[in-house]
Amino acid sequence: MDEVIKAALAEMEIRSVRFTMEDLTRRLRMSKTSLYKIVTSKEQLIHAIIDYLMSEFQREVNEVRGENFPLAEKLRRFIRAYTKAFRYFERGTYSDLKNFYPQEWARWEEFRRQRIDNLMTMLQFGIDDGVLRPINLQILQRCLLVMSESLTDTKFLAENNLTYSQAVEDMCDWMFNGFLQK
């Protein structure tokens, strides 16, 4: 199944979730019959892809949690894992998922919200430990949710020659590193 998921992710980078099972069989060099022995439908495959992306992100975050890094490094690694998880949501994948697979989009949206909640927890620990200055985390959380959602606008991204991952990285850079020159 991992081989099929990885091939489907490669197709998503080209065609979003609009890839066909035929596109996938060509990439895998297998018959549709063989593919359907592994996965019974495209819906099941999309579900497996979302599971895979969530578990990969969680694996990376667990590695970061297990290390004794300073908070700043943990935040950097968390944000890197977040943007990596979203790299497959370029070229309109986020909106296509919402339009064509609303149940899977809802799962991914809940996952995204939980990741921002996790980030808020890390920041609260930093505030409690005196590493970060006290800020209103509810406002930051709301801003992150709204901004990360608004960055899925494919027209905005195309007009500015950006990918979603680049836009999120830039947003995180100025939010966590500030605007002032060092």
Q: Biggest β-sheet, characterized? A: none
Percent range for helical residues?
over 70%
Distance N to C terminus: 48 Å
Beta-strand residue fraction:
under 5%
Q: Would you tell me the overall average pLDDT? A: 87
**Secondary structure category:** mainly alpha
Order of helices and strands: HHHHHHHHHH
How many β-strands, per DSSP? 0
Gyration radius, to the nearest Å? 18 Å
The total of helices stands at: 10
Basic shape: elongated
The poorly predicted ranges are none
Characterise this structure.
The protein has 182 residues and is mainly alpha-helical. It is built from ten helices and no strands. The protein is elongated. It starts with a helix and ends in a 5-residue tail after the last helix. The model has no long low-confidence stretch (mean pLDDT 87).
In short:
This protein is mainly α and 182 residues long. The protein contains ten helices and no strands.
Topology (elements, then pairings):
Elements: H1 2-15, H2 21-28, H3 32-38, H4 42-66, H5 71-85, H6 93-100, H7 102-128, H8 137-150, H9 154-159, H10 164-177
Helix pairs in contact: 1-2, 1-4, 4-5, 4-7, 5-7, 5-10, 6-7, 7-8
